[in-house]
Amino acid sequence: MARLETPACDFGRPAPDFRLPGVDGQDWTLEDCRGYKGTVVMFICNHCPYVQAILDRIVRDARELEQYEVGSVAIMSNDTEAYPEDGFDKMKALAEEAGFTFPYLYDESQETARLYGAVCTPDFFGFDAELKLQYRGRLDASGRHRADDSSRRELFEAMKRIAQTGQGPEPEAQQPSMGCSIKWRGAAP
């Protein structure tokens, strides 16, 4: 598994729209997922050890961000033929087991991941109320292994700030997320 890091935040970049099927049987658009004061769009998958290490923290932070009117959505864009553990039925099972309170969507064409510029799982995009990018960083100091429970909640703090002020943290305060590469069909995009 190739470990990648996300690029720096491209402040003000608009969130690309999408229409993707969710594990709940509904199709979801960006508008359906957005929060009144901010939106987290995250690219995750079932099998990645980087995601597995923080899955409960993702669920916790998404749930707690709701009180700040920040919506969250998770998108799975991996090639499920090569990685069947990321298949739709297994996505359903994971969302139920982990207690997702946000939509978990399947990007079968991988077009949404390309539009966002997603490079790894997990990859977090934090948008303001106008769906302009304000945060591109990690959840916390966790990597392949879970960070100490006292580690700073970087994504949560950034999104709380965005909800309250409309501005994300300064670029130097945003640490890149790291994880397994998106599993592209055929050649890389």
From TrEMBL:
Q: Give positions of region: Disordered.
A: 164-189
Per its UniProt record, what CDD domains does this chain match?
A: PRX_like1 (cd02969)
Task: Extract the GO molecular function terms from the UniProt entry.
Answer: antioxidant activity; oxidoreductase activity
The Thioredoxin domain sits at 9-161
The family database entries (SUPFAM superfamilies) matched by this protein are listed as:
Thioredoxin-like
Q: Which Pfam families match?
A: AhpC-TSA
Q: Which PANTHER family match?
A: OS07G0260300 PROTEIN, THIOREDOXIN-DEPENDENT PEROXIREDOXIN
Please give the name of this protein: Thioredoxin family protein
Provide the organism lineage as a comma list: Bacteria, Pseudomonadati, Pseudomonadota, Gammaproteobacteria, Natronospirales
